[in-house]
Write a structure and sequence with these properties.
The protein has 186 residues and is an all-alpha fold. It has one domain. It is built from 3 helices and no strands. Helix 1 packs antiparallel against helix 2 and helix 1 runs antiparallel to helix 3. The relative contact order is 0.19. The model has no long low-confidence stretch (mean pLDDT 91).
Length: 186
């Protein structure tokens, strides 16, 4: 059983039509997947921003705790100095002993403030990370909003239909569709 030119032309047109429909579904699926991936990425970025904010709060809390610990160390050092100086018979209210204790207060306060400042800087860095994550989330959401699976599918379908129509026209002009339901007489 052989195929005549009209049958082969019909099979060719049918195959092109099926191919166009499959490409249309593929375009829709690809656009849907891309949009879903961007939205997922946006949610991950928002989650990361929340984690960075929690880390910032933790950095501030650690800074306060470390500051308190540093002040306790300074107080302990000052107590040891006072006991040592007093045991040697020095008057703690004047001269060198007073200068030593004042310097201990000054340096201890400076160290405590440096520790607290380090916590604030760490918190600031975490909050900058959170802002960057939120910017990523916004960018992904914006990109996702620009993807329309129906538009992608429609565009692909129109292109495929145009190709099928062009092939039909060429086959009809060449006479390959003569005697088939696809023949246009005119």
């Amino acid at each position: 059983m052989g195929f005549d030119a009209g049958t082969l032309a019909q099979v060719s047109l049918g195959s092109q039509g099926v191919g166009a429909v499959m490409q249309t579904f593929g375009a829709y699926s690809a656009a849907s997947s891309q949009r879903a991936g961007l939205r997922y990425g946006a949610q991950v970025a928002r989650n990361n921003a929340q984690i960075a904010e929690w880390q910032a709060e933790d950095a501030l809390a650690r800074g306060r705790t470390n500051e308190q610990n540093q002040r306790l160390k300074t107080a302990a050092l000052k107590g040891t100095q006072r006991a040592s100086l007093a045991a040697r018979g020095f008057d703690l209210g004047e001269g060198t002993p007073l200068a030593i204790l004042s310097d201990t207060d000054f340096m201890g306060d400076r160290d405590a403030l440096a520790v607290r400042d380090a916590g604030k800087k760490d918190a600031w860095a975490q909050r900058m990370r959170a802002q960057n994550y939120m910017a990523d989330a916004a960018g992904n959401e914006f990109a996702a909003s620009g993807i329309n699976p129906f538009l992608a599918a429609s565009s692909t379908l129109l292109t495929g239909a145009g190709n099928v129509a062009s092939s039909w026209y060429k086959m009809n002009q060449s006479g390959a569709l003569k005697g088939t339901p696809f023949e246009m007489k005119g």
